[in-house]
Amino acid sequence: MFIFRDAEDHIAWLLQHGWHEKALAAVEAGQGRTELLDEVGSRYLDHLILERKYAEAAMLCPKLLRGSASSWERWIFHFAQLRQLPVLVPYIPTENPRLRDTAYEVALVALATNPSFHKDLLATVKSWPPVIYSALPVISAIEPQLNTSSMTETLKEALAELYVINEQYEKSLALYADLMKPDIFDFIDKHNLHDAISDKVVQLMLVDCRRAVSLLIQHRGLITPSECDSRYFLHLYLHSLFEVNPHAGKDFHDMQVELYAEYDPKMLLPFLRSSQHYTLEKAYDICVKRDLLREQVFILGRMGNSKQALAIIINKLEDIEEAIEFVSMQHDDELWEELIKQCFNKPEMVGVLLEHTVGNLDPLYIVNMVPNGLRIPSLNLLCNFFPLP
């Protein structure tokens, strides 16, 4: 049986035999001097480290180190030397006590250089007050990993957060654009970064097409269509710009004809009718290439080539009513004759022509132009225009 001279002798015996938990409990129970708590705690942590029970040691640090800034800093650097600092980071205090900046920076760098802890880095950067450390050393540790396999999405987001802390907002914006963060538009407005988005149009469109187009329109003086490197998104931008101001993007109307033809053909004809800033010949070639017939008719009409336009309506669209409407709008008597002649190439249209030109042409004039021997289907329609006496 052991006889201890006093409580401290008992605690020393417990430590000597490796019963650190019991020694700690004895000190906490008031046995021995208060100063013993630091010694017992330190020896307990040393024991756990020797046993490689790093997570358990880290978890006990708040209890054993309490408000001693110097003790915290000593153990932070000890964990760092052992390459085990990431397990201690969740327990490091940010106040009461507040440590030196270096301690926090070393902890963040330890998280940044191990892909397994990138999520912890992001969470820590978001939770720790920015005033307790300098972001620059952590940024310097992460930047060399850009464009390497170790640059995870989470690490990229953490770097973006650090750039914000360091007031490097344009660098943050570039990373948020790569990450396609939904709140990027609010970030742009908050930090007035509108002049920095010209090379990020595609990413912004992919995040939220409607908000991106609205942003581009609002700041069209800063961002020109030529700075949009995606044809589809350029089409969306120019279309919206045209709706707001038909003249704002006039230098790009030739390109816009091509974009409408490619992405939204039904909107091309309204555009052709509204704009005066595209080259007719170029527009016509595009419409021919894509077999856009009504658009060809409109352009030929503007070019003054009404006969060719009429031929397309009759021979390709095969729409006699549209042909009559087209000729009526041209106010050209020779074009009426051309219409009649071209209808004779499709005799089935003659009856429809007679029916729809009442008030514009004398039916007898049409009949007199019919070539000898031409067979006209539905001849009885002619009788409606020439009733027997």
Walkthrough of the structure:
The protein has helices spanning 7-16, 20-28, 36-50, 54-65, 69-81, 85-88, 101-112, 118-127, 135-142, 153-165, 169-179, 184-190, 201-207, 209-218, 231-244, 253-263, 268-274, 280-289, 293-303, 306-317, 320-330, 333-343, 348-356, 363-369, 380-385. With 389 residues, the protein is mainly α.
Task: Summarize the SSE layout with pairings.
Layout: H1 7-16, H2 20-28, H3 36-50, H4 54-65, H5 69-81, H6 85-88, H7 101-112, H8 118-127, H9 135-142, H10 153-165, H11 169-179, H12 184-190, H13 201-207, H14 209-218, H15 231-244, H16 253-263, H17 268-274, H18 280-289, H19 293-303, H20 306-317, H21 320-330, H22 333-343, H23 348-356, H24 363-369, H25 380-385
Helix pairs in contact: 1-2, 2-3, 3-4, 5-7, 7-9, 8-10, 9-10, 10-11, 13-14, 14-15, 15-16, 16-18, 17-19, 18-19, 19-20, 20-21, 20-22, 21-22
